[in-house]
Amino acid sequence: MAPFKEEPVIRVGLIHDQETIEFSIENPFKLVSESGDSLTIHPISSQRWRVSLADTGSLRVENVENGEHRDFADSKWVQVIPHEMSDTLTTLHNVTIGIQFHWQRDEDQDFLHIMEFRKTGEKVLTAINQLPVETYLQSVISSEMSGTSPLSLLKAHTVIARSWLIAQMKKPPHKDFLVCADDHCQRYQGMKRFTKIVGQAVRETRGEVLTYQNEICDTRYYKTCGGVSEDFVNCWPPNEVPYCTAILDEPGGETTPLPDLTIEANVRAWVLSRPPSFCNATPEELAPVLNEYDKEIPDLYRWTVSFSNEELSRLVESKSGKKIGKIKSLIPRRRGPSGRIIEMDILGTEDTLHLDDQLEIRRHLSESHLYSSCFVVDTEGGSKGVPEKFILLGGGWGHGVGLCQIGAAMMGLKGYDYQQILFHYYKGSSLTPWWK
Q1: Core vs surface per residue 185-194: b (16+ CB within 10 A) or e
Q2: Smallest Cα–Cα separation from 79: which of 46, 105, 111, 123?
Q3: What is the number of domains present in the chain?
Q4: Which domain holds residue 263?
Q5: Is the C-alpha dihedral spanning 289, 290, 295, 298 positive or negative?
Q6: pLDDT digit string (tens) for 7-63?
Q7: Contacts of 107 (CB under 8 A, 6+ apart)
Q8: How confident is the model at residue 296 (pLDDT cuts 50, 70, 90)?
């Protein structure tokens, strides 16, 4: 992929497959449909509108206050185009964030530029935001981390968010839009969390991406590594990615030999200690760099989760669809260099379940997602080889590949510049302008 002559415009999926979607806007805008119909509206104040599908299958845009509506026949989509796209906010109501994670909730979000409502099924709609990349990044950076974070972190995060996004253009992960707005892709939660320093970070890195051997890097990232990052191939096999391999999250960690966390005894000692990693941060240090819902977890570096046998057996059966009886043990079969379990057997009284993916391990051992697959297991009580209780002692939050957000934030607080942060987490990469 060659550098672009100008900044790209992208499409981001916001609300998916809903029967109705509501939005508000207070400045003049046009409704434009696929068939070419156009209607200009001058709201008296901020008015609430509902988009739905009429009985005829036509797209219907209705004023919630007075019931007046306009149907757009023979169109798969209708767009809301503000007269002043870069200054007018369109508010989407009840946007779900953190889907299937422990912080899932609904909130109203404000967006710039074009809002599209598209039929994606016989009776359902999807909301899509169409906007320039640099404007998109202003929201991503203040959604992933707090807009009060150190400038060097925000600049580093802008570069990797831009790089990851452009890398997806080779093989778009979605059909009607390039990326979604949730953790499956990158958090994109509108402009409410935007700050001046975020604008500065985006402006001062405009068009910059990370490259490796003249190719844009697939710059994955996550919340915290727990002390050692993970090899790309252990999360997304069979791809070996030279710039995303395990490192110690400490000064000079790119070249420091790793502790052998593929050995169970070493992993146990590791997670029961708190090595002086960049991401081993106090709540006071984390206060300015995390958004409020991320602060709900008491400790991102080390954690403990407990289940009764009944709870865990029911959970595993519901996630796997396989009846294995009461659980006798959780057996790690293979760990990566970060200590994350890549393959595991769940041994039951009736059958054994084999899992060979770190994300599936996290899904099977939580109602949403276990913080990470770097953990050891203690048991309590029980009889005849069937414990009464399982205690998971773990470290880190996320898959562990690429940039550790908490570690990068602490590097910023310690005075590292954004290039030093980037080259710490992405070994051998280069900073490259991709558009002006």
Answers
A1: bbbbbbbbbb
A2: 111
A3: 1
A4: 227-276+302-395
A5: negative
A6: 999 999 999 999 999 999 999 999 999 999 999 999 877 789 999 999 999 999 999
A7: 94, 95, 97, 189
A8: confident
- Starting at the earlier edge strand, list the strands of the sheet with 327-335: 327-335, 341-348, 352-355
Which residues touch 190 (CB under 8 Å, ≥6 apart)?
92, 95, 109, 110, 111, 139, 143
Distance CA 316, CA 309 (A): 11
In a domain, 383, yes or no: yes
% residues pLDDT > 70 (the chain): 100
What number of residues does the chain have? 436
The confidence score (pLDDT) of residue 102 equals 67
Task: State the amino acid at position 170 in one-letter form.
Answer: K
pTM: 0.94
412-420 LR contacts (CB < 8 Å, sep 24+): 412/149, 412/150, 412/151, 412/152, 412/153, 412/156, 413/150, 413/285, 414/278, 416/152, 417/152, 418/151, 418/152, 418/153, 418/155, 418/156, 418/159, 418/205, 419/156
Question: Residue for token digits 């791809």?
Answer: 239
Residue position matching structure tokens 């200690």: 273
Domain membership flag for residue 36: no
CA distance 178 to 169: 7
- If we measure between CA atoms, which residue out of 196, 117, 115, 95 comes closest to residue 151? 196
3-state secondary structure of 345: strand
Contact yes or no for 160/78 (Cβ under 8 A): no
Its sign, for the CA torsion 372, 376, 377, 378, is negative
38 CB-contact burial (10 Å; exposed 0-12 / middle 13-18 / buried 19+): exposed
Across 55-207, the runs of DSSP E, i.e. the strands, are 59-63, 69-72, 77-82, 90-97, 105-111, 114-119, 125-132, 179-180
The CA distance from 162 to 108, in Å, is 25
Residue 100 has pLDDT above 90, yes or no: no
235 in any annotated domain = yes
8 A C-beta contact, residue 178 and residue 168: yes
Residue 99 clears pLDDT 80, i.e. is over it: no
